[in-house]
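Fig. S4 source data, part A: sequence.
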Amino acid sequence: MARQPDGPPPEPAVQRLRLRYAKRGRLRFSSHRDFQRSFERALRRADVPMAYSAGFSPHPRISYANAAPTGAASEAEYVEIAVTQRCDPVRVRAALDAALPPGLDVVEVVEARTAGLPERLEASLWQVELPGVEPGEAAAALEAFLAAPEVQVQRLMKTGMRTFDARAAVVRAEVVPAGDADSSSAPGPQARGGVCAILQMVVRHTTPAVRPDDVLAALRSHAQLAPPSSPRMTRLAQGPLDEAGGTVADPLTADRVADGA
């Protein structure tokens, strides 16, 4: 028989909460591990009654879903927590937002009324700013990329160099005017001045994951688009994918509907 830890078992979870948070400004350079540490500290400071796993090394019951890569800003990151006492989602949002550093901002908290949040995260809407690139140049490169049946790129992964198709994951992509770009996470290109092409693309979540920098690598190799300055990438949304319309829906809608909101 397996040895069991001494003491009473952990308190059962009575409620699950789903959070949408944003990575903005300089905090886009924080890694997922950095966020995990900050988030667990914020939970303690906010006195959230967390449920813990059983065993000799109990951990707070937190589920992270599809974090954005380091260096990318995001308006749509998701995490789910389990608590041992029923909590008001509005109060939890305010307390956690106050406990986290500026730039890691809790946007919304809802009670989990349905199953399968990770499965709903089927695609992401990305915005990529290309300083120093004329919109017409970017549009021509994007047209060539979208016309290709496949565009192979390489990325170094934990298991070594991997080659995969970046084109197949891109559902829709376009160059948008500066006035139509989302500027919620930073001053827009017009505010900073200078020429800047802005791409918006819907990318299907695949294995291996195709990231916006992979698409930029494909544009560089296939269409010779080489921005003179570092691109700025922001995830604007992630959730269920409408294949026909090429749009990304809100993954928390089902929980709000089930809650009668």
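Fig. S4 source data, part B ends here. The helical segments are 32-45, 89-99, 117-120, 135-147, 189-192, 212-223, 253-259.
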